[in-house]
Amino acid sequence: MEATLLRHPRFCSVQVMDELEEGAGPKWVRTTVELNDHIIVPNLDPTAMLIEPDRTLEDYLSSLSTLPMDHSHPLWEFHVLDFPTSEAVAALAFHAHHSLGDGTSLLSLLVAFAGSSKVLPTTAPRRISTIKALSPRSTSSAATGAVAVFTMWIMSLLLLVWHTVVDIVCFVATDASIPRDPPTLFKGADGVEFRPKHFVNRRLSLEDIKYVKSVMCCTVNDVLLGVTSTALSRYYFQKTGESDKRNIKTLACMMKSGKDNGVKWGNQLGYMLLPFHIEKHDDPLKYAEKATRVAHRKKSSMKSVFTNWSALVIKKIFGIKATASLCYALFKNTTILFSNMVGPTEQVALYDHPILYIGPSICGQPHALTIHYQSYMNIVKLVLAIDEAQLQNVDDLLEDFIESLTLIREAASGKPRVAEECSQEEHRHGET
């Protein structure tokens, strides 16, 4: 750790206020790091670890969600939970303040810290296309083709501008509490950010997700949106007994990578408002189809770039408190926080201990339900952060996610795969 983690300035610094400069914000200052203060081996009940190891792990992680961090030393900790669970022989919980970095930064740091020879890509890899030899065309046909291409480019640009303007207006209105999600089963109640979160996870098959992707001619993220919409709809109608449709807004977190696939450290975040339609469909693929249409519409917008840029501008002009206030208002007026990250495609090890899964999540936001998807090797880890006081049937909700992917996969099995068209689609939109 001394040779790797502590070389990064954020992990050996604390935030302090410059009292000599009026109105100055916090700044990072180097400090001496005592590793014993950051490596914690809790003393847990041996009987609980033996009888209910999974629940013991979940309860301990839940306790971390309300545990205040000591701001007198760098805001990170490693909690070593050295007892076997149903998935691994031990667990390592990395508890860090979000000011240290976003998910892409921290995940890339984990891969580097684990000593992997693989570099985690933070942007979609560019595809190498095969150019076929074309027969010479006449001057008139070439001119006509050039005009058609230019016209399509202009139309695409105008559509991008229009979608961006509409999304920005909706984003500002949501932040100003003009349109806010109505109270529903999933909407966080007042003070939910101060209550402990229960962190649960399940494995999803990446192969099943990719199969649906090839049938639907979409991206992995589109399939996950469809699975989420299906699961939320199933859970909602089962628990409420209602039959009316509902629309809820989900705040999707978009990671902005640095140049040349290098990770630009910090919180390079942008946000996107996604509508989740709570409704019933006889065909499970309808959920994926609707999610794909919504995702394609959102991709033709620069909204996530705008939210990232506007946050930097507001922070520079009005300070960090104004930025935090606007961010809190946006979280408060939406129902769910949704995030999806790409992880290593090959297994990494931590000091010769193979890492079997990675399950990121967050706490402190005013949401009763936060959904994270994390791919790693051939699995996708579904991680839910749940306010148990509001959503008490955690296992039922998890099973709805598992069953939703199964139903969508089975429905897709009877349809032909269109891999060539999907390859072209991914080239246009990028794989997520």
UniProtKB/TrEMBL annotation:
Membrane topology label: Single-pass membrane protein
UniProt pathway annotation: Glycerolipid metabolism; triacylglycerol biosynthesis; Lipid metabolism
Catalyses which reaction(s): a long chain fatty alcohol + a fatty acyl-CoA = a long-chain alcohol wax ester + CoA; an acyl-CoA + a 1,2-diacyl-sn-glycerol = a triacyl-sn-glycerol + CoA
Keywords (A to Z) from UniProt: Acyltransferase, Endoplasmic reticulum, Transferase
Subcellular location: Cell membrane; Endoplasmic reticulum membrane
InterPro entries to which the protein is assigned, alphabetical: O-acyltransferase_WSD1-like (IPR045034), O-acyltransferase_WSD1_C (IPR009721), O-acyltransferase_WSD1_N (IPR004255)
Gene Ontology CC annotations of this record: endoplasmic reticulum membrane; plasma membrane
Pfam families registered for this protein in UniProt: WS_DGAT_C, WS_DGAT_cat
GO MF annotation terms: diacylglycerol O-acyltransferase activity; long-chain-alcohol O-fatty-acyltransferase activity; O-acyltransferase activity
Record-annotated O-acyltransferase WSD1 C-terminal domain positions: 265-408
Acyltransferase recorded as keyword: yes
UniProt-listed GO biological process terms: triglyceride biosynthetic process
Domain O-acyltransferase WSD1-like N-terminal: 16-223
Similarity-based family: In the N-terminal section; belongs to the long-chain O-acyltransferase family.
Protein name per UniProt: Uncharacterized protein
Species of origin: Triticum aestivum (Wheat)
